[in-house]
Design brief:
Layout lengths: L12 E7 L6 H8 L6 E6 L5 H6 L4 E5 L5 H14 L4 E4 L8 H13 L3 E7 L8 H18 L11 E4 L1 H5 L9 H12 L2 E7 L15 H20 L6 E4 L5 E4 L1 H10 L4 H16 L5 H12 L4 H7 L7 H15 L8 H6 L1 H40 L3
Parallel strand pairs: 1-2, 1-4, 2-3, 5-7
Antiparallel strand pairs: 4-6, 5-6, 8-9
């Protein structure tokens, strides 16, 4: 089955196979891919086994890195080659024979209809010999992806993918090894590109038959550092650079200030603003110093809330007013009366009791105050939105 070129969308895919010391499984992978695609590129990332000899017998195009530079760099090399040779997409499949070319063809069909989306194969782990580290890694990375983007990505570590080449024109990536596959998804979502997933099969070989180049310490450290950087960037209320499709179906760039202006002209949902407000004010009011800030930030990303709202309106609960009200409410709950004496005894010697009453009272004050401010923001949002509609903006 030959590679198809969609003349309407000009969809022309290149299958890229990153290779590093998988000479034993590479022939099987290439034979499988040739059933569905004709344009194949192997990127030999500095293999030290007999990969060169094996590749020479497979009748496929090959680019060789003299030294091992990492899987991410191999994919970037393939993307550069694809662009120079008139392709629109690269389809990646690992050389370890864990994936099936028929699934790659399925992803390709989805990409053909969604030509500016990244398509990922969601691995079915209901099979034999699946390492526990793979299961944990998928869930762990998926959690952080949602914190960083507000979007759910089921299998951000899957190597079976389709990339539109336009993302390599407009985005820059710094990680060149396994962590690249996380970075490219997060930054693409930030930029406004869509990510789609489809179920795919996977096979894990037993014992010595399975050759993995994942270095537990080094690669997990790289992933940890990357997730830290991405999470910090996600929490900063400064807009990401966006890319949109214009009326001519071309991707164009908007600088951050133009993005803000464009967003203000959209019919933004007052409901989202109100929910963001409730979340911010609640965790700003709750008496859990340190912990509340961490939960506020994680939830802001996980639920895709308005960052500017979350990082500004939580300040409404700053001392002394809201903590003082919480202490009064907590005192009333404990004693059935209000605290009216403020002296060295009640605020000094009895400080542990006041702290306990602050925590207790905040459980009542935080939700009430949060909902009240949320309602106000909701109606303000409705008024502003109506004004923008009437003004034609």
């Amino acid at each position: 089955m030959a590679t198809r070129i969609n003349k309407i969308n000009m969809y022309k895919p290149l299958v890229a196979v990153p290779l590093y010391n998988h000479s034993k499984t590479l022939p099987t992978v290439i034979d499988d891919v040739k059933k569905y695609f004709t344009d194949i590129l192997v990127v030999d990332d500095g293999s030290t086994d007999n990969s060169k000899q094996v590749i020479s017998e497979l009748n496929v195009n090959c680019i060789t890195h003299e030294k091992n530079q990492g899987k991410g760099q191999a994919i970037l090399t393939a993307a550069k080659y694809a662009k120079e040779n008139g392709f629109t997409h690269i389809l990646t499949i690992d050389a370890d024979n864990q994936h099936y070319a028929e699934d790659l063809f399925k992803l390709s069909e989805i990409a053909e209809q969604n030509d500016k989306s990244i398509v990922i194969g969601y691995r079915n782990f209901n099979t034999e010999n699946v390492p526990g580290s793979s299961k944990f890694g998928r869930e762990f990375s998926g959690f952080w992806a949602r914190v960083q983007t507000g979007k759910k990505v089921g299998d951000i570590q899957s190597g079976l993918r389709v990339y539109p080449l336009i993302i390599f024109d407009y985005l820059k990536f710094h990680d060149k090894r396994y962590s690249f596959e996380v970075e490219v998804i997060i930054k693409s979502i930030w930029a406004g590109f869509d990510v789609k997933e489809a179920d795919v099969k996977v096979k894990y070989h037993k014992g010595r038959e399975r050759v993995s180049h994942f270095k537990k310490f080094q690669d997990n450290l790289r992933l940890s550092i990357l997730n830290t950087k991405l999470t910090v960037r996600a929490m900063i209320p400064y807009p990401h650079k966006k890319y949109i499709v214009n009326k001519d179906n071309q991707v164009v760039s908007l600088n951050p200030f133009k993005v803000v202006k464009a967003e203000l002209k959209k019919n933004k949902s007052p409901y989202n603003l109100a929910v963001s407000t409730v979340w911010a004010v609640f965790w700003g009011s709750i008496a859990l110093p340190g912990i509340r800030t961490m939960i506020l930030l994680f939830g802001m990303g996980y639920f895709n809330l308005n960052r500017a709202i979350c990082l500004s309106l939580d300040k409404l609960a700053m001392p002394p007013f809201i903590p003082a009200i919480a202490i009064e409410v907590g005192f009333f709950i404990r004693h059935g009366k209000w605290l009216t004496e403020f002296n060295l005894t009640t605020l000094g010697y009895q400080a542990p009791q006041r702290i306990w009453e602050w925590i207790l009272g905040s459980l009542v004050v935080a939700p009430v105050f949060a909902v009240l401010v949320g309602i106000i923001v909701f109606f303000i949002g409705k008024i502003v939105r109506r004004g923008l509609i009437l003004s034609g903006r």
